[in-house]
Design brief:
Elements (H helix, E strand, L loop, with lengths): L20 H15 L6 H8 L3 H5 L5 H14 L11 H18 L1 H9 L5 H16 L4 H28 L5 H10 L7 H13 L3 H17 L3
Helix pairs in contact: 1-2, 1-4, 5-6, 5-7, 5-8, 5-11, 7-8, 8-11
Length: 226
Amino acid sequence: MSVTQPVRSPRRRAPRNSLNADRILDAAIRLLDCHGAEAFTMRALAQQLGVGTMAVYSHFRGKDEISDAVAQRLLDTIELPPAGSGDPRAELREVCLGVYRLFSEHPSALQLLTLRPMRGDDAISVIDRMLGLLCEAGLSRTEAARAHVALMQYTVGSALWNTRRARALCDDGVRDRVRAKIDALPSDRYPSLVSLAPELMRVQENGAAQYERGLDAMVEGLLGGR
């Protein structure tokens, strides 16, 4: 007795000679943003492009080179404010917001930049601008260095927190289960959490707005009355 094999739909292949570096990087960013760095392989990238794996190798030497190019392209999207506005606090805020938006919109960028050494001029430009603005605002050399690290830690950490929280709450019923768990907490053991639960849930609904509020507080605290 013969067994009927399932019919496989043919893989849609890219038109001949249509593959180029830009198309590869576009596909790599989509793959990374949708599935994360763990799922990023040359084979998966080739499948998304509808080409053989060797076709990708004809443009890039391997995954590491593509990762570096993707990180550089994403860093290119950070728009530094025009210099010389006379308001270093406002410029510093805009730089931090640009970094936050990048990591919020493209969580894969954070993974790539932490897994691979920094290689692009644009990342260096961001660091240089932030340090210059902090010195312009009146901080000493050491204070400027410490403030830069603190702002980057807060910015990157906030982007990571908010993107992961948003993904976790995407599943049906998760928000209701979280609320129910908090409502069930004994108030005698967790008095502050139970009392402030409504406010806590409300401010966490808009991660970007909460980041900006915290950023303003940090800048004010770091620069003080300067």
